Structures are given as C-alpha cells and as structure tokens.
Amino acid sequence: GENVEQHPSTLSVQEGDSAVIKCTYSDSASNYFPWYKQELGKRPQLIIDIRSNVGEKKDQRIAVTLNKTAKHFSLHITETQPEDSAVYFCAASRGNNNDMRFGAGTRLTVKP
Amino acid sequence: EAGVVQSPRYKIIEKKQPVAFWCNPISGHNTLYWYLQNLGQGPELLIRYENEEAVDDSQLPKDRFSAERLKGVDSTLKIQPAELGDSAVYLCASSFSTPHEQFFGPGTRLTVL
Question: Is A58 helix (H, G, I), strand (E, B) or coil?
C-alpha cells in the first residue's frame, strides 16, 4: 500500500517569512495529493490539492508543487501570518479515494 | 449546508467496556470513512464505505471493532471491549465518490481508563 512521509515534523518561522513542507510517497499509481490544515482541537480541513496531471497549483499565499518522477510534493506558504499556525497534513491516493494515506503532520508555528 | 456530524464529542470509559460512535455525513455523499487519529499523528483509515458497502476495511481490527452503514447514510463504529490503547480521536469523513475532497467531522475523543 501507499506510504507517505512528511518533513519536517515541526517548523517555526517568523511572521512574513515563507514556510515549506515536503512529502514523499511510495505508490507511483497515486494521482491525487491533498493538503489539510488542522487547528488545535478542530477537524482537518482541505486547503489545497493537486492532481498528477499538473505540476503546480496556487491559491493566493498557498502553492503546491508535484514532482511525479521523484514522487514528492511540497506545500509552500508565503507571507506567513500567525493564523497559519496549525498542523498540516499531506496525503496521497490513487483517486476515487482508494487507499488514501496521510503523512504524520507538520506543526507550523508562525511567530509574530 | 450542515457539515459532517459526529457524536458524542467526548467519551470516557473504563477498559473492557463497549463504546459506540455515530456519524452523519454530508447529504448526498456516497463515501464515508472512519479514521483513527493518535496524538501528533495523521489520520489512519479504519474503514471506507461506498453507500452501504464496506469496500476497504483492511485496517479495521475486526476482533474488537465493528462498523455499519445499513441504509447508506449514517454510520456507527463500535469497539467491544475497549482497551487502553484505543484512546484516540475517531474521525468520520465523507465525500462524493468523485471528485476526492474529504470533509471531516469534529471527531470523538475517546479516553479509556
């Protein structure tokens, strides 16, 4: 089955700086890669996703890049704000929600 | 539109007791998932339903865990008997069969004493 590894486990940045979180996956058949944000005590919420037919997707301050050859994808947050502080999870699946696997999460802290 | 609803939000039981969690997905979502989330970890899939059919339950510890989604709408996850190691947050999520975004419920935090 799919195995997703996520790095770093914790990340601390100064407000206004950029943050990058990286994930690798093992199943070359995976074609859907979502990122979820989970604030303390709350449910995970989708913030951005990418499918394997594109290499990059951007939504305001958030972007995701995908390298299918190397089987890794990354989340980029620019101009970070304190409200970006949360745990971020990457995931990978083959589509139709088969075998979706989550990374262990990255705890991002944005210091004002 | 209401999101995914779960109850109870918190449950404290003694080991060897049974416990049940309930989930009502977003209206119209055919696919329902139960996940287990340990502290500091990502969600781990326990079981996935397509309508009323369990199509992926390979990670469900079947000796003590069971689940049902009889009418293809709401679902119940049961643990009997509970063990200390079952303490975690149990998340329910739902989605249309395609595309793939999963919407999560608030979770049930289980503490087994």
Answer: strand
Question: Using the beta-carbon criterion (under 8 Å), do A34 and B45 form an inter-chain contact?
Answer: no
What are the E-state strand segments in B1-113?
5-7, 10-13, 19-24, 31-37, 44-50, 53-56, 65-68, 75-79, 88-95, 103-104, 108-112
* Contact list, B26 vs chain A (CB under 8 Å): none
Give the tens place of pLDDT for each residue, A51-110.
888 899 999 999 999 999 999 999 999 999 999 999 999 999 886 656 688 999 999 999
| Identity at B102, one-letter amino acid code | Q
B100 and B1 in contact (C-beta within 8 Å)? Answer: no
Residue B81 C-alpha, separation from nearest chain A C-alpha, in angstroms = 26
Chain B, residues 77-96, CB within 8 A of chain A, namely: 91, 95
Residue in B41, B48, B107 closest to A97 by CB: B48
Give the strand pairing for B10-13 and B108-112: parallel
> Does B38 contact chain A (CB < 8 Å)?
no
User: What contacts B3, CB < 8 A, 6 or more positions away?
Assistant: B26, B103, B105
